[in-house]
Amino acid sequence: MIEFIKNLLKQKEGIRLEFKEAKEKLPENLFETICAFLNREGGSIMLGVTDDGTCIGVAPELVGKFSAEISSLSNNKNKLDPPFILFPSIAEIKRTKIIHIQVPASSQVHKCNGVIFDRSADGDFRVTDTAKIAELHNRKKAHFTEGIIYPALAKKDFVKELFPKIRNLIRSNKPNHPWLALDDQQLFVTSGLYKKDYQTNKEGFTLAAALLLGKEETIQNILPHYKIDALVRKQNLERYDDRLIIRTNLIDAYDLLMGFIEKHLPDKFYMEGATRISIREKIFREVVANLIVHREYTNAHSASLIIYTDRIEVLNANNPNGSGPISINNFTPFPKNPTISKFFVQLGRVEELGSGLINVERYLKLYSKNSTPVFIEDYVFKTIIPTEVEGTIHVAIGEADTIGVALDAVLAGGVSGGVSGGISGGVSNDVKNRLMEILGFLLQNNGAKLAEIEKKIKLTHRTAERYIRVLRSLKVIKFVGAAKTGRYIVTKIFMDKVNQKEA
Questions:
Q1: pLDDT value of residue 424
Q2: Contacts (Cβ under 8 Å, ≥6 apart) of 463
Q3: Residue 105's domain spans which residues?
Q4: Which tens digit of pLDDT belongs to each residue from 327-363?
Q5: Which long-range contacts (CB under 8 A, 24 or more apart) does 448-452 make?
Q6: What is the DSSP string of 173-206?
Q7: How many domains does the chain have?
């Protein structure tokens, strides 16, 4: 995200960008600008920056306090009505700390201190004329269909088991999140899933509420065309090798799609600093989340995620904000379903608006060498992720190379100590690479059978047994279970050596 912020600082203030000085206190008009951004196209507010883009910073001792105040006030109906909770991020630029507030466009009309504000290229302005207020409401309703109210929707139409699930997800993401203190109805209102149309006096649960938490029959009654089609087309390109049709709510749909991806795409073990991460998850949590939160659900075009041998293609109906390929350098983050997007942010499944494209491009280079994702904006949004989904599992190690260093130490001790495990003449680079491939596979699939290792690493039975003997003799892996059904796992002894290297 730091690249995104640096790019913003090179730009001039405009309808979607505002710089504000905030050295010792929050600007008095900050929430007027937040309100205006919510009511127009959204955008970024940078605190600690002068009008010409110079970073003067926020007092370091006040950064945390200001961030907490912004989150608290954005969730306070007396300040911002209806509330729209925001979580600012902190960035260090040229040895100064600035606060970045990502404000999405909202599907609702908001007031700050009882006054509606709108945004233009010249700044924020009050909206008091009745006709202008009506125009603002109508524009929101026409563009953001997720806010359509269904008065007949009732609590019985929602999956009650989802409420503890979403609270657990919110708690895991932010233990002190203010939504955790709300009952179910308060949660609906605060999150924008239950609202009142002040023009028609109609109130009730919205389309976003039905999609996020509704029973399958509820969603099908409202949107009979709704489905997500996940396919594997490696062998049978006309039909499919495997298929998953999803018609359930968006909370469960996310988990089902991630499970389908984990089933059919390999992962790569990677160290980011001292932390082990799944590159597959880093890439595809963004891809899946974008499919879900930016889809135009009133369009009958079904969403699809197709896994080919050399790429993954994702298609979903879209309410475009332009046309053609987009990249980090030319895209403008714009939420298609701000209420759904906001809900996923609170669950920890989506980060700041615009982060998805940046994260996919960053981690794809580690997952599939020299690959670049393609994003094409149109009425059907298309994402193409080139990737090597076949072939040998490679172990991608971060700068510390902790796994390799730990294995080197074990190999050196084993050879000098006379432990060979059937490898004569010392351990060559080729042998070490094979051992690393097996170890990498077991780190991702702890508890694999010998046949699974042979198939994945493409080794003959005799060769696989030989390398397994080496790793077992060095106490890197061990066999557990019965002779016919047992599996191989990485030993605690070896992982302790890895952790020592990390430390």
A1: 47
A2: none
A3: 1-136
A4: 666 556 666 888 998 899 899 887 765 567 778 888 8
A5: 448/487, 448/488, 449/486, 449/487, 449/488, 450/488
A6: H-TT-GGGGS-HHHHHHHTTSEEEETTTTEEEEE
A7: 3
Cβ atoms of 251 and 162 closer than 8 Å: yes
Q: Give the pLDDT confidence score for residue 398 in this predicted structure.
A: 41
CATH classification of the domain holding 347: 3.30.565.60
Q: Token pair 């390999």 is at which residue?
A: 266
> For residue 180, what are its two tokens?
């955790």
Q: Which residues pair with 197 in a beta bridge?
A: 202
pTM reported for the whole predicted model:
0.62
Share of residues in the chain with pLDDT > 70 (%): 87
Query: What does the pLDDT look like over 250-293, one tens digit per residue?
Result: 999 999 999 999 888 888 767 776 667 788 888 999 899 989 98
Which tokens is 154 given? 């009732």
- Residues 7-18 have pLDDT tens digits of 888 888 998 899
CATH of the domain at 479: 1.10.10.10
Check if the beta carbon of residue 388 is closer than 8 Å to that of residue 368.
yes
For residue 363, the model assigns a pLDDT of 86
Pair (444, 368) in one structural domain: no
Q: What is the pLDDT of residue 310?
A: 86
Is the residue at 188 inside a domain?
Answer: no
Q: How would you classify the pairing of strands 149-150 and 202-206? A: antiparallel
Which strand (E) or helix (H) includes residue 270? strand 269-272
Instruction: Please state the three-class secondary structure of 448-492 as a single string.
Output: ECHHHHHHHHCCCHHHHHHHHHHHHHCCCEEEECCCCCCEEEECH
> For residue 214, is it within any domain?
no
Overall residue count recorded for the chain in this entry:
503
Tokens 């109805």 belong to 185
Distance from chain centroid for Cα 309? 24
Count how many Cα atoms sit within 13 Å of the Cα of residue 436 in the half-sphere of its side chain: 22
